Structure to design on (418 residues):
């Protein structure tokens, strides 16, 4: 049915979005892609297929089709704007040639097929079905003789070395969000040179030998070329006392910064609090860093700096104690735009947890808190097998009662899923 629908779709674009089907998701994608008909150039048939842009991304953030607006080119809010092989670029070039009168049939041979675009999110995982789907995609593009532009906006890569052939095939200038897991820093740097328009970058498990080595310096140089970067995430990436070098090359007005498992020190937190990025951040994740082992003041200063913009804060597994929490509460209560707070897996007692709730009830935008299970609920703290579920149930009941007393039933206080 979907294949037939694609064949007769009466508009220039089709945004599929999320599908709830019993069939294999890859089979569904392949069926719709198979329904694409490569159209002859300047097709004047009023009854013929009109589809030029097929969007198979999970969340395309728009309706099934875009409003029809009279323009020289097929109109779509999601049309590719970066690649020279996109509909927009090709038809702009052809339009300019016609307007200037500089082209003729001999010097400017015209394509016999209409340019089309296929928008997909690609996950390069080392599975047989993924490889099969990618091979199908490549064949479809090759069969189009260059008229079908494969536009990947969201690319997830596990082990770059296992996917070098497909990475050479993709137009990486289209990428807006790039997620890399398990790669050498030199491989990441090579890729950054090609994803110049990326706005979201996530790197995890990226080993390197030395901060003084050429690979780290090269990485920072190419990272500094990503002018559109708004969201940046590093995890399992050693950065102790080196955060200043990273912040120096990142764009100043970033929305999100995530640095979990990066070995950050209190000195790094001080550097972050003094950075130009701090006053713009809406999401900050410093989980699994021992940033409170030396002093609390740097983090207090950081909270004061981000208080005007911060909406999402994660400080899970940072060894926050009662005294630390008590010291940072005044600064945390200044974060008037805070919506989500996660600080699970910290050794907090019940009195400290109650104090936190009382300090945060005036934050009217706060809707979701993931709190640590108080230490008295364990025989041995943070060992799940020693958790007393009855004690935990009493904790949740007490917190819910406190929320009801101050008319804050709209806030969801929950523990991290064990």
């Amino acid at each position: 049915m979907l294949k037939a629908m694609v064949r007769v779709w009466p508009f220039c674009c089709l945004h599929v979005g999320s599908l709830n089907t019993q069939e294999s998701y890859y089979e569904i994608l392949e069926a719709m892609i198979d329904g694409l008909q490569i159209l002859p150039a300047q097709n004047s048939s009023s009854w013929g297929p009109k589809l030029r842009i097929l969007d198979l991304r999970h969340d395309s953030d728009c309706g099934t089709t875009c409003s029809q607006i009279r323009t020289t080119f097929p109109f779509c809010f999601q049309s590719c704007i970066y690649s020279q092989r996109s509909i927009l670029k090709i038809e702009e070039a052809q339009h300019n040639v016609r307007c200037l009168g500089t082209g003729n049939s001999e010097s400017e041979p015209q394509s016999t097929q209409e340019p089309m675009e296929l928008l997909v999110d690609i996950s390069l995982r080392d599975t047989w079905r993924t490889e099969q789907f990618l091979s199908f995609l490549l064949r479809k593009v090759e069969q189009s003789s260059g008229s079908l532009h494969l536009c990947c906006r969201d690319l997830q890569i596990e082990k770059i070395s296992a996917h070098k052939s497909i990475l050479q095939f993709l137009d990486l200038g289209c990428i807006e969000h790039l997620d890399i897991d398990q790669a050498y820093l030199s491989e990441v740097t090579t890729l950054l040179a090609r994803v110049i328009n990326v706005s979201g970058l996530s790197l995890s498990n990226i080993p390197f030998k030395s901060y003084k080595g050429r690979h780290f310096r090269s990485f920072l140089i190419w990272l500094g070329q990503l002018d559109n970067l708004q969201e940046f995430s590093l995890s399992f990436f050693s950065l102790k006392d080196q955060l200043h070098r990273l912040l120096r090359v990142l764009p100043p007005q970033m929305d999100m910064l995530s640095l979990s498992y990066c070995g950050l020190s209190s000195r790094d937190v001080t550097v972050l609090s003094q950075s130009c990025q701090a006053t713009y951040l809406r999401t900050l994740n410093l989980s699994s860093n021992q940033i409170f082992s030396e002093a609390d003041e740097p983090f207090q200063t950081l909270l004061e700096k981000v208080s005007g913009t911060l909406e999402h804060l994660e400080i899970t597994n940072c060894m926050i104690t009662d005294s630390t929490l008590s010291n940072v509460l005044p600064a945390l209560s200044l974060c008037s735009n805070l919506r989500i707070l996660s600080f699970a897996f910290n050794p907090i007692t019940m009195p400290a947890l109650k104090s936190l709730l009382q300090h945060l009830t005036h934050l009217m935008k706060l809707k979701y808190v993931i709190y640590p299970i108080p230490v008295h609920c364990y025989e041995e703290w943070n060992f799940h097998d020693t958790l007393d579920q009855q004690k935990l149930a009493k904790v949740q009941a007490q917190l819910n009662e406190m929320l009801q007393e101050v008319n804050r039933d709209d806030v969801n206080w929950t523990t991290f899923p064990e």
Remarks:
- The first helix runs from residue 2 to 8.
- The longest strand covers residues 148-158.
